[in-house]
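Dear U.,

Please find below the material for section 3 of the report. The protein was modelled together with zinc ion; I have listed the sequence and SMILES used, followed by the predicted complex structure.
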Amino acid sequence: MSHCQPIEDLRSAILKLNLEQAQLLHCDLETLIEQLQALKPQHQPTVVKAHRVVQEVRHIEGVTYQLERVKCGKEGCKCTDAPIHGPYWYAYWRVNDRQKTRYIGKRFKTVNILERTKPQFSSVSTYRLPLKVVKQATEELVSTLC
Ligand SMILES: [Zn+2]
């Protein structure tokens, strides 16, 4: 049993309509489509989630780069039928078994994944230098006090 059968039946019925009936049906259909579209996100929350179609993959220095067309899934967007946004490059890599993602843009370029983890280290490295300065300043302060 094909689930398309009701549609086929409808189609053959539609072919028998006159202009007024067809226009009425058109109006009804538009209303119905609007109602269904308004309901859709609630019934299928996954539709709201971005959907991706990978067009190209590159592996460079432990980073996977993917050229993707994106379906944002936002209500009212043209992309509901097909992922039409982009294509954009995205970088994927793993840090401690955790997937990291970074948006690159329309033009391909490699990302510096160390740059991404830099904040963790920079807090240490920038701390190290002032420590010397602080120590020196403290010694100077102590010497002036004594
Ligand atoms: Zn969209």
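For the text of the report, you could mention the following: Strands lie at 51-60, 63-71, 85-95, 98-105.

Regards,
Y.
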